[in-house]
Amino acid sequence: MDKKSRNIHVEVPADMLRYQRQLYRLNIITEKLAKYVSEKDLHYGSSWRKRGGAGAFMVMARKWDRIEQACETQESAKYDIFNVFKEEDRRETILDDCLDLVGYLLILVEHMIEIGHVTKIEALRMKFSLSLLTAKVTEPTGMSKPFGFDEEEDAPQGDKEDTT
């Protein structure tokens, strides 16, 4: 999905109450964003986490830095992100950075669930568990390296098998 194909017209009934409209939009945004992020992650091979936690943090920090820079350079209202969206000549830039940051945060949370560092999210009343009895593990097509690198390369030295 390219940037242009993200431009989907969503008609929201005007008579909906404010928070109903917000929930309606959030459902559409998260559904589309989750699909977009998954497609990008598949395409790029999860390169955002290839260099470990510090590298993943830096990828996300770079997106925040771009958002912050856009807010700092606005003479009319420094740090007024609403104004940046309103006045920026290239609105796609700030929007893309915001969507990318949200996307990275979503896949970070998902990755923490995948590796077992997060087992539940209390605020959302979500609990995660993996049942090996019912789980059917299949490799997605076209993904010989689903994380963009060989997992063994990142395993601690004590975890590798001795082949000598």
Word description of this protein:
The chain has five helices and two strands; from the N terminus they run H-H-H-H-E-E-H. It has one domain (4-142). It has helices at residues 18-44, 52-72, 81-87, 91-114, 151-154; strands spanning 120-121, 126-127. By secondary structure, it is mainly α. The longest helix is centred in the first third of the chain and has 27 residues, at 18-44. A two-stranded antiparallel sheet has the order 1-2. The chain is 51% helix and 2% strand. The chain starts with 17 loop residues before the first helix and ends in a 10-residue tail after the last helix.
From the structure above, extract its key features.
164 residues, mainly alpha, 5 helices, 2% strand
Number of domains: 1
Query: Percentage of helical residues?
Result: 40-55%
Order of helices and strands: HHHHEEH
Gap between N and C termini, in Å? 46 Å
How many distinct beta strands? 2
Which term fits the overall shape? globular
Q: Helix and strand layout, with pairings?
A:
Blueprint: H1 18-44, H2 52-72, H3 81-87, H4 91-114, E1 120-121, E2 126-127, H5 151-154
Brief account:
The protein has 164 residues and is mainly alpha-helical. It has five helices and two strands. It has helices at 18-44, 52-72, 81-87, 91-114, 151-154, and strands at residues 120-121, 126-127.
